[in-house]
Design goal:
The protein has 295 residues and is mostly helical. The protein has helices spanning 16-41, 48-66, 73-94, 97-104, 109-118, 121-126, 129-144, 148-151, 156-178, 189-212, 222-267; strands at 274-277, 283-286. The chain has eleven helices and two strands. It has a two-stranded antiparallel sheet. β1 and β2 form a beta hairpin. The longest helix is centred in the C-terminal third of the chain and has 46 residues, at 222-267.
Length: 295
């Protein structure tokens, strides 16, 4: 998220941090498209709508970080917050980048290390839905209900740290709720749904407090403040509803996928390769056959 000035003032161009974010977002999107294309040329199926989803997330992040956002200082800031902290993470996660990477990598050290990292205990705790919700929404309360937001105007390093936290926290929370990629332990729909409801409620309450009282140390015009808060309140509801749809579809289809996995395991010979299956039904083969041969 590119933080708008804490006080209205003359417009300035994007700084080094913003430009780096723009370049990184576009490069990551291009890399995703190249890997997906390589997978298809190899004969594997990979839906093209996932390419569109990931590319939209990268372009949206680049635009919000370095482009011109409409509205006053606070309204523009809130639009950027919605894009980079909420909408773009959903578009990224929906494209299942971890599954793509695991399927594209050949059996070897790089693939094993990525799988070990994805299934490690620290990552498992990080994507625990209640903790991910606390890191995401708790950071927003700290930002807007203290003088941290005003301080970011004159401290570029602090600005960059907040920028990175909002993007990273949004990605972690979205990943924790959706759990479309293979993870160490898949949390129940009840746990993920409760975390989503709690985060949505905390986000809405924060927006209401901002409507009545701006962030400490700021003096935004009332019209700009209220417009920005409406973007935060209603835009947040839209993204949360989209997350709920993803969660509901995952729950609805989980039973059928579980039965299909059990059938495959029963039909497979003992000692065969293990397959990790994400919530979307994408499977990733890990390990090796009993002969020790690698393809």
């Amino acid at each position: 998220m590119t933080l708008a000035h804490a006080h209205p003032g003359p417009a300035t161009g994007p700084g080094t941090g913003q430009l780096l974010t723009v370049v990184a977002a576009l490069l990551v999107a291009v890399a995703y498209l190249l890997v997906a294309g390589r997978l298809r040329r190899r004969g594997d199926a990979w839906p093209r709508w996932r390419d569109v989803s990931f590319t939209a997330g990268g372009v949206g992040t680049a635009w919000a970080s370095g482009g011109t956002v409409p509205g006053g200082p606070f309204t523009g800031h809130m639009i950027q917050h919605l894009v980079v902290g909420m909408a773009a993470p959903l578009l990224f996660v929906a494209a299942r980048p971890l599954t793509l990477a695991l399927r594209a990598l050949r059996p070897g050290r790089a693939r094993r290390r990525l799988l070990v990292l994805a299934r490690s205990r620290p990552v498992g705790w990080l994507v625990l839905p209640p903790l991910a919700a606390l890191l995401d929404v708790g950071g927003l309360w700290l930002l807007y209900r203290t003088e941290l937001f005003a301080a970011t105007r004159h401290r570029p390093l602090l600005h960059g740290m907040v920028h990175a936290h909002v993007l990273a926290a949004g990605l972690v929370f979205t990943f924790a709720v959706c759990q479309l990629d293979p993870v160490r332990r898949r949390r129940s729909v009840a746990v993920r749904g409760a975390a989503l409801l709690a985060a949505g409620a905390a986000h809405a309450v924060l927006a209401k407090t901002l409507y009545a009282l701006p962030p400490p140390g700021t003096d935004f015009a009332a019209a700009d403040l209220h417009s920005g808060v409406r973007w935060m309140y209603y835009g947040g509801d839209v993204v949360d509803a989209a997350l709920a749809v993803v969660l509901g579809v995952s729950w609805y289809t989980a039973g059928g996928r579980a039965r299909a996995r059990r059938t495959r395991r029963e039909a497979a010979p003992t000692g065969g390769k293990q397959r990790l299956t994400g919530a979307a039904g994408d499977s990733v083969t890990v390990g090796s056959a009993p002969t020790g041969r690698h393809r």
